[in-house]
Amino acid sequence: MKKRFFAFLSFFILLSVLTAQSKKVYLFSYFMNNSEDGLHLAYSYDGLKWTAINGGNAIMNPTVGEDKLIRDPSVCQGPDKKFHMVWTSSWHDRIIGYASSDDLIHWSKQQALPVMMDEPKALNCWAPELFYDSKSKLFYIIWATTIPGKHSYVATSKSEKQWNHRIYYVTTSDFVTYSKTKIFFDPKFSAIDAAIIQDTNKDYIMVVKNENSNPPEKNLRITRTNDLSQGFPTEVSAPITGNYWAEGPSPLIIGKYMYIYFDKYRDHKYGAVRSLDREHWEDVSESISFPQGTRHGTAFTVENKYLKALLKYYAQ
Length: 316
What we know:
It contains 2 helices and 19 strands. It is mainly beta. A hairpin with a 4-residue loop joins strand 16 (257-264) and strand 17 (269-275). The N and C termini lie far apart (42 Å).
């Protein structure tokens, strides 16, 4: 009887451990201040309260780019369980940063992806975002670039006179070979900070910032498609954010809700909206908390074992 009891107990403990490890938790990759220090991570069990990992210190410092920055870090886990990350590496480069990791602790050598080097007039490569499309088995990398004279005119303020962004992209299956850079989203406004998520009904939703400055918009809109290879309609929704300037949207599905987190960069704090039907959005900014100083990040879901390993590693 004792042998049976201890065998059952051991099985129960093992089952409990495996269940705990497979439980989903949420991570948030972000930068702070002027982004010279590097990549930061935070975690949450409910999507509302976010806690900094490593005591709020950076876990990876930038090594590529003219300005050696890690801004707007976007992390995506592939089907092989490897994590891939892209980021803004400089204010005026034609490259973006890239690195990968098996555990979010140890990272590969940082690379400079020359995504706009074939466009000699390109002024920048800002806020790259990663999205893995299981249908095509391709990673999409999308980002904002201004090429003077390339796109339809939009009225700008004096301080933003040179900027007229559109969203560009490449695809890859292995982060070794890449498709040719092409335009991804070309609306009748200056567009930056685009982020894609696949909804529970399999539709794709893209959140994008209307960056127009005269008169100032500085708000978030959404557009959707059921075929990512055909791109997104340039007719977008009305603003889903309120009477404040918002950027850096990051969509995340928690239960039946879709949350969209964003940087209230003029207010120096983070905000969020959420929706059940993806048509009506409720501002829940007062219900969330992020580490002080959090800037433009990406929320993503992982198995709890990755978080446990992170917390154990940085506790040492």
